Amino acid sequence: MAKQVKTIGVLTSGGDAPGMNAAIRAVVRTAIANGVKVKGIMRGYAGLLQEEIIDMESTSVSNIIFRGGTILYTARCQEFTTPEGQQAGAEICRKHGIDGIVVIGGDGSFRGAGKLAALGVNTIGVPGTIDLDIACTDYTIGFDTAVNTAMEAIDRVRDTSTSHERCSIIEVMGRNAGYIALWCGIANGAEDVLLPERYDGDEQQLINRIIANRKRGKKHNIIINAEGIGHSTSMARRIEAATGVETRATILGHMQRGGTPTCKDRVYASIMGAKAAQLLCDGASNRVVAYKNGQYTDFDIQEALQMKKDIQEDQFEIARILAL
């Protein structure tokens, strides 16, 4: 077990996710409850290297739990992927008396956290990403809000698609993971769901289904396309040319990252943030907080990064059957 900390730093890194503020709030207040000081590190690892570090009190996190985004801001930092940048980050932590850090972000952020831990800075990761693509956990902060935002938008697109008897290709986020697309495919009753983990690029199958659906009287088609496949606009043009059915592409984009976090994202993020701070207060390091099989737990960062995650085949099959 690593040494016990006296001052905790907290940062958010990579893409923002609704619920990050709830996690920050929980880290700050749990640390203070343990008699540990807290410093906020602005703009992720980039801000750490620029020494954008502020003192945080309990009141610093008042009235933020319902806000999307992150009050600490976030950025990506290529410099921190280098040994020189990592060493500089560890030295800056020591300069400011920070002997423990909570890193809220995705797998890239956790790689940086593991490097800091190896350089003597106690570090705990909290999974904050709308993509749900961290293998060690069944839940990541922001996914629930993002998928609900996408679902509501797709419902609206369906209304106009039905009115105009169109085919609509709706592209959702998720980077190279298809979880948002899969959940929306089931929740929105889509006729097709294209996932990076499963799609073989056979557009002719899509075209054949659209034609068959028209023949049996179906007036519209909804295709959910994952960001990892992309090219929705050109796909729409090809489908319209092949079927004669007016086809429009809608790319939902970064609206899925914003907005008020759902109750689930507020509660789960709060518990994860609190557990991360408590782990540091108890002297732990190089861990990732996770929610696995209905329980909150933690894993070694390197072990977590080596885990693989895939779409559950039964869920994909259910989506296919329900679309028939």
Determine Rg (CA atoms, Å): 22 Å
Specify the helix fraction band.
Answer: 40-55%
Q: Label the overall shape.
A: elongated
* Main sheet strand line-up: 3-2-1-4-5-10-11
The average pLDDT is 96
Most strands sheet: 7 strands, mixed
Structural class: alpha/beta
Note the beta-strand portion. 15-25%
Number of helices: 11
Report low-confidence residues grouped into runs of 5 or more. Answer: none
Sequence of secondary-structure elements: EHEHEHEHEHEHEHEHEHEEHH
Beta-strand segment tally: 11
How far the N terminus sits from the C terminus, by CA atoms, comes to 54 Å
Task: Give structural notes.
The longest helix has 21 residues, at 143-163. α4 (107-118) links the parallel β4 (100-105) and β5. The chain is elongated and about 70 Å long. The protein has helices at residues 20-33, 44-49, 83-95, 107-118, 143-163, 179-187, 203-215, 232-243, 263-281, 301-306, 313-322; strands spanning 7-12, 37-41, 53-56, 100-105, 122-127, 167-172, 192-194, 221-226, 247-251, 287-292, 295-300. With 324 residues, it is of the alpha/beta class. Strands 3-2-1-4-5-10-11 form a seven-stranded mixed beta sheet, with helices on both faces. The protein has eleven helices and eleven strands.
Short recap of the structure:
The chain is built from 11 helices and 11 strands. It has 324 residues and is of the alpha/beta class.
Structure keywords:
324 residues; alpha/beta; seven-stranded mixed sheet; 42% helix
Write the topology of this structure:
Layout: E1 7-12, H1 20-33, E2 37-41, H2 44-49, E3 53-56, H3 83-95, E4 100-105, H4 107-118, E5 122-127, H5 143-163, E6 167-172, H6 179-187, E7 192-194, H7 203-215, E8 221-226, H8 232-243, E9 247-251, H9 263-281, E10 287-292, E11 295-300, H10 301-306, H11 313-322
Parallel strand pairs: 1-2, 1-4, 4-5, 5-10, 6-8, 6-9, 7-8
Antiparallel strand pairs: 2-3, 10-11
Helix pairs in contact: 1-9, 5-6, 7-8
